[in-house]
Specification:
Blueprint: E1 2-6, H1 10-21, E2 25-29, H2 33-40, H3 51-60, E3 64-67, H4 70-75, E4 79-82, H5 98-110, E5 116-119, H6 127-138, E6 145-148, H7 158-163, E7 168-172, H8 175-184, H9 186-190, E8 195-198, H10 200-231, H11 235-243, H12 264-277, H13 283-304, E9 315-319, H14 334-344, E10 348-352, H15 357-360, E11 368-369, H16 373-377, E12 382-385, H17 390-393, H18 397-403, E13 408-411, E14 427-429, H19 441-448
Bound molecules: uridine-5'-diphosphate-glucuronic acid.
Uridine-5'-diphosphate-glucuronic acid binds near residues 122 and 155.
Length: about 450
């Protein structure tokens, strides 16, 4: 089976490499010549654990290649996956489908009869039917099928998610689409991964409803964390106990600085916009969006609070800029909202991230970049952990305390426990957990003044 991935971004690249690893003949196409040149040289344009090796193995085996020439690649493909971006449209939050439609037109011009065009990009309900019309108009008489195959990969564990998914969702309008995708995912079927075969519309809705639900779950626990802080509760204990209820489940109940990334913010906006467009407002999701926005602002205040009434000239060390660990992705990362607010308040910011420095540098140009966490915390009045990278979990906190000028650690990911800080002299502020020694915060401003 010959497969083509149109769009070699995150989803297209990971899916293309994994399909090649299943044994299919795969061509990953992109309009970006420099990206294709880098891929041909074995260099990855993104950071994803394990992807470089899997890519090299499959190129070596002759099953995977890269090209900018969509026409040639798609001409003899059995299935063409469209995995191009669907960014938020400015103003209304709706997903911009321009790239999807343009890719469909280009494929239509060259596709062989019987080709299945699979939409993998995250697209609003009704898009696959539109793609079907576009292809039929562009190439009247062509015998083809359209299918929807949304992806549920998480950055940082994308290969594992592809190889061992909770489910594969396939939306189809005919048997040919179904059997092509069943064939493509046969190796997973043999591993007992559930396969949901449904309509095009349901598949499109499943993708948005999944991400919106997860974003809502994170937002829910974040609000519970706020309440825990005011009434003296501990969100981790609450989350653990509610998660033991099988109907709720324990995952995605980690309170933090708010969700970010290339998917949740964009997809919740697009889902809410779809509801508005069809006169069926998704009020819960609209609230999730605004609560999450508000949260990022409040997290900046939480970091500034120990600096007292005048943060001017005080130093904050920010550990973690990527929206989550194991990725260099900073798209809509909470750090991009939080750091500018710290700077606006007059603070000096030194930042460290194990992977995201290059991506973040142009977006945060008033920040000093440190080579490691200890370098960042030197002379800091406050240290703030924004991303739960493994290397921040085992910091030598006594050394951190010694290097700092002040003594407050603001842990927005709850990776430490109060007892870890004993004998370090550090004051610990986390999310949704009791604060030890709150009144001593004033001592910090006295010390740093
Ligand atoms: C998300 C979904 O998890 C994937 O299933 C989906 O395929 C992907 O979007 C997509 O649509 O392409 P991803 O954006 O990689 O994946 O990141 P997640 O691991 O889901 O985290 C999203 C955000 O929620 C991050 O900012 C993370 O820090 C935050 N989060 C997550 C929490 O604050 N608490 C949690 O308990 C879980």
């Amino acid at each position: 089976m010959k497969l083509v991935m149109v769009g070699s971004g995150y989803v297209g690249l990971v899916s293309g490499v994994c399909f090649a690893d299943f044994g299919f003949d795969v061509t990953c196409v992109d309009v970006d010549e420099s990206k294709i040149a880098r891929l041909e040289a074995g260099e990855l344009p993104i950071y994803e654990p394990g992807l470089d090796q899997l890519l090299a193995e499959n190129v070596q085996a002759g099953r995977l290649r890269f090209s900018t020439d969509l026409a040639t690649a798609a001409a003899d493909a059995d299935a063409v996956f469209i995995a191009v971006g669907t960014p938020s449209r400015r103003g209304d939050g709706e997903a911009d489908l321009t790239y999807v439609f343009e890719a469909a037109r280009q494929v239509a011009r060259v596709a062989k009869p019987g080709t299945v065009v699979v939409i993998k990009s995250t697209v609003v309900v009704g898009t696959c039917r539109k793609v079907k019309e576009i292809i039929a108009t562009e190439r009247p008489g062509l015998d083809f099928s359209v299918a929807s195959n949304p992806e549920f990969l998480r950055e940082g564990s994308a290969i594992e998610d592809f190889m061992r998914p909770d489910r594969v969702v396939i939306g189809v309008h005919d048997k040919r689409g179904e059997s092509a995708l069943r064939r493509a995912y046969r190796p997973l079927y043999l591993r007992d991964s559930p396969m949901v075969v449904t309509t095009l519309e349901n598949a499109e809705l499943i993708k948005y409803a999944s991400n919106a639900f997860l974003a809502m779950k994170v937002t829910f626990i974040n609000e519970v964390a706020d309440l825990c802080e005011t009434v003296g509760g501990n969100v981790q204990e609450v989350a653990k106990a509610i998660g033991l209820d099988g109907r709720i489940g324990s995952k995605f109940l980690h309170a933090g600085p708010g969700f970010g990334g290339s998917c949740f913010p964009k997809d919740t906006r697009a889902f809410a916009a779809t509801g508005q467009k069809h006169n069926t407002p998704l009020r819960l999701i609209e609230t999730v969006i605004s609560v999450n926005e508000d949260r990022k602002r409040r997290m900046a205040e939480k970091i500034l609070e120990p600096l007292g009434s005048n943060p001017e000239g005080k130093k904050v060390a920010v550990l973690g800029i990527a929206f989550k660990p194991n990725t260099d992705d900073v798209r809509e990362a909470p750090s991009l909202d939080i750091v500018p607010r710290l700077l606006e308040a007059g603070a000096i910011v030194a930042a460290h991230d194990p992977e995201a420095r290059e991506q973040a540098r142009p977006l945060l140009n008033e920040v000093t970049w440190a080579d490691d966490a200890y370098d960042a915390v030197k002379d800091a009045d406050v240290v703030a952990i924004l991303t739960e990278w493994n290397e921040y979990r085992g910091l030598d906190l006594k050394r951190v305390a010694k290097l700092m000028r002040g003594n407050t650690l603001v842990d927005l990911r709850n990776i430490y426990k109060q007892e870890d800080l004993e004998e370090t002299g550090l004051l610990y502020i986390s999310v949704g957990r009791p604060r030890a020694g709150t009144p001593r915060l004033h001592a910090v401003s006295a010390k740093t003044a």
